[in-house]
Structures are given as C-alpha cells and as structure tokens.
Design goal:
- The chain is α/β, with parallel strands linked by helices.
- It has one domain: Glycogen Phosphorylase B (Rossmann fold, 3-Layer(aba) Sandwich).
- It contains six helices and seven strands.
- Strands 3-2-1-4-5-6-7 form a seven-stranded parallel beta sheet.
- Strand 4 (about 75-80), helix 5 and strand 5 (about 100) form a beta-alpha-beta unit.
- Helix 4 (about 55-70) crosses helix 5.
Length: about 150
C-alpha cells in the first residue's frame, strides 16, 4: 500500500514519525516543507516551500501537490497538520485516496484551523484529547494520545 505522509517540518513531523509503526512496511513517502530537518529524512520525500496561509503560496503548493499525487497515486494520505494538509486532502479525495487526519496534541480544547478545513474530506479523523470531540462532528474519534 502506498501512503503519503503530509506534514509541516516541526512538531507535526515529530508527531507523524511517532506513527511510524502504522506505515512501516508500506511504500511511504513524505510531502513536507524544505528545511534542514526534512532534508535528512531517509524516506522518499517531496520538499515544498513553506506556505503558511498565504493564498498565493497555497495555490502554488496545491499545483505541486497535485503533480506529486498524480505521479505517486497513494492509496492513503496521512497527516498530522499543518496547512500543507489542506490542498493534499482535497486533491487526494478527488483522486480517490483515503484521508486520515490526526489533530495535533497541542490542541486540547480548541480545534486547529487545518483540522476544521480538512474535516469534511477525511475518511478518519482522530483527536488526542477527549474534550475536542465536542468541537468536531461524529466522524471525530478519540483513541488516546500519541505522546
């Protein structure tokens, strides 16, 4: 199974690496930001410019992500955030990929902006704190925290 691991390069990368047992043994690759920490990843990777929530940079990243996803054709897109997940999830769903989002452990009582944006197109949505269940809809699940 081919899995796209989509995350920013800081704590979100740390969190997705905590999930390594879930994608170990599969054909996994990263879509993340170009940074010293991501350049040394042993896995196959696509490094993009940090987009933040700049609409222009988001559009450029969406085009790049579309090309990557068309080339790779992952079965699953797994993300722990941040904003790089937004174009990846919407484009991934158009390409029939299953999407799994894990809300960051830093979100205890309020949802992230990225979580709110990707929730409608996720196949599975996990929160790490039970208080967040009330902030999302019935698709949200709490199975415990990663850390």
């Amino acid at each position: 199974m081919k899995i796209a691991l989509v995350c920013s390069h800081g704590g979100h990368l740390s969190e997705i690496m905590e999930l390594a047992d879930a994608y170990s043994g599969h054909d996994a690759f990263f879509i993340t930001y170009d940074a010293p920490r991501t350049r040394v990843l042993a896995e196959r990777k696509y490094l993009l410019r940090n987009i933040g929530f700049n609409p222009f940079l988001m559009a450029i990243a969406a085009a790049q992500i579309m090309l990557i996803l068309l080339w790779e054709r992952p079965h699953i897109i797994l993300s722990t955030g941040a904003e790089i997940a937004i174009p990846a999830f919407y484009i991934g769903r158009l390409l029939s990929a299953r999407t799994i989002y894990v809300e960051t452990v830093a979100r205890v009582v309020t949802p992230s902006l990225t979580g709110r944006w990707v929730y409608p197109v996720t196949n599975a949505f996990f929160v790490q704190w039970p208080d967040l269940l009330a902030c999302y809809g019935p698709k949200a699940q709490h199975k415990g925290g990663m850390l």
